[in-house]
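Lesson 9: reading folded outputs for more than one chain in a single document. The general rule is that every protein is listed as its sequence immediately followed by its structure tokens, and records are never interleaved. Here is the first one.
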Amino acid sequence: MSEEMIRCSWATGSDELLIHHHDHEWGVPIHDDRLLFEMLILEGAQAGLSWITILRKREAYKKAFDNFDPAKIARYSEKKLNALMTNSGIVRNRLKIEAAVKNARAFLAIQKEFGSFDRYLWNYVSNAQVRNHPRKPGDVPARTDLSDSISKDLKKRGMSFVGSTIIYAFLQSVGVVDDHVVNCFRSKAS
């Protein structure tokens, strides 16, 4: 992509990881359960941190968390949790690490109930991406009624680090919501 391309303001600058994420992932609809789980865990890990911090740790997370296989993560032992706490490649926050295990168990239960997490998630928007066409960064909300509803249900199902703001960021990351500003080359605004 040309450096002259206009992007959302959060993806400007010279950080190639951030630019690549913006240009190729953010706002692109995902229907793969493993990737949906990956983004759910990464968004929870990001709480209180910058997204670039998590992007820089993404490969270490994949390795540390068995390529985000929820069935494996759901069976993590106390020994494995303690080992993760010593892994400098990830965010070493005990609550976030424990949440990954807890969330894997709830994720598997959702898959069993709905046939897939994809079906569960996209049902909230009748399988159609929400396109907001914000004019400027300040028009992008931190949470919405949609993220409130999903957050509430995921918490009821036993997940943690799934507050409404985290879930809204997740919805943007997995393309349930497209919040590219209208002058961004990725915007689908007409």
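And here is the second record, again sequence then tokens.
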Amino acid sequence: MPIEPPPSGYRFTPAGLPDGEDLVGVGADLEPGTLLTAYRSGVFPMPVSRHRKAAIGWWSPDPRGVLPIEGLRVSRSLRGSCRRYEIRIDTAYDEVIRACADPRRPGGWIRSDIRTAYTRLHELGWAHSVEAWSGERLAGGLYGVAIGGLFAGESMFHRDRDASKVALVGLVELLRSVGESGRLVDVQWATPHLAALGAVEVSRARYLSDLRHALDLPLPDLPVPRHRDALG
């Protein structure tokens, strides 16, 4: 089981925001307890701009992008790509988050402080990578936070064609295999790329309601990293 960090003194209340307002607040910290409190409240961190010293914003999009587990769309070509890669979990977390944080990527926003914060969450057993491998080469993947029945996707990357999509398919198949209904895959915003895979938009109120149910579910069977001294 993941290690529960010390509780955070911060509280997040997205339910009180006006409809269509995404930003809950600015500031706070990136301690593990704060991050977990945020996700359990339906909120996630992202800098308010791409400037390297920009403040951390806390976001609860309205509408919210989610990927229904039974609504995943796998095209014929993507199905063929799935046969070319092997899915692994948490065997190269550091490489995945480094690739997602590559400053050369268009729209890149993952700074060193964010990488450090999510690496610590990984060491505590809360953040995970889903990886698409071509032989012994990492071709693409994604990382996110798993709490109960919630998987909050943070970022994905690919080096080879369709590799990040295949990692997402692998994640959904893993969650399907657990069996309980009500598991929630949060993709933050339903971009056209994600919508093509089946992501949809729901209201913030609907997301928060579904989140409450998801958090009551058990975690899927994900590996727990060996770094058990991460709070030290």
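What the second record shows: The beta strands are 23-26, 44-47, 56-59, 64-66, 86-89, 127-134, 137-147, 150-158, 184-188, 200-202.
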